[in-house]
Specification:
Helix content is 77%, strand content 0%. It is mainly alpha-helical.
Length: 128
């Protein structure tokens, strides 16, 4: 005696249309992982600096290469994005900005401010 229960199926990504809130949620988690890996590199850089000029020259040579600079640019964007989106979440935690239009707008603002801060810091670093 088998009874079939007609329950609704959970929607999935083929049904949902991509929204900025979905993107910012996934990007927030990904930026946290990027920050973790970047922090390991930062720790290695500091350890090399403490171990003498030869060790520091090796890791600093990698950090100064075009690939190392590209990785650090991405790490700095992840840092600023995680910061901006974290502030957005703190505001949500007090119950402000939860309506769809404000959530959509603040998602774009978080990405834009993170990009602007990243560019500002890198331009300032090359000028100074």
């Amino acid at each position: 005696m088998s009874r079939q229960v007609n329950r609704p199926l959970s929607p999935h990504l083929q049904i949902y249309r991509w929204q900025i809130s979905m993107l910012t949620s996934i990007a927030h988690r990904a930026s946290g992982m990027v920050l973790s890996v970047g922090s390991i590199f930062l720790a290695l850089w500091l350890i090399a600096a403490a171990n003498g000029p030869e060790a520091f020259a090796g890791i600093n040579g990698f950090a100064g290469s075009w690939f190392g600079q590209l990785l650090m640019f991405g790490w700095s964007f992840a840092l600023f994005y995680h910061l901006c989106n974290g502030i957005r979440h703190l505001v949500w935690d007090v119950g402000v900005g939860l309506d769809l239009e404000t959530a959509r707008l603040t998602g774009y603002v978080a990405i834009g401010v993170a990009a602007a801060l990243t560019l500002f810091v890198w331009i300032w670093a090359f000028i100074a």
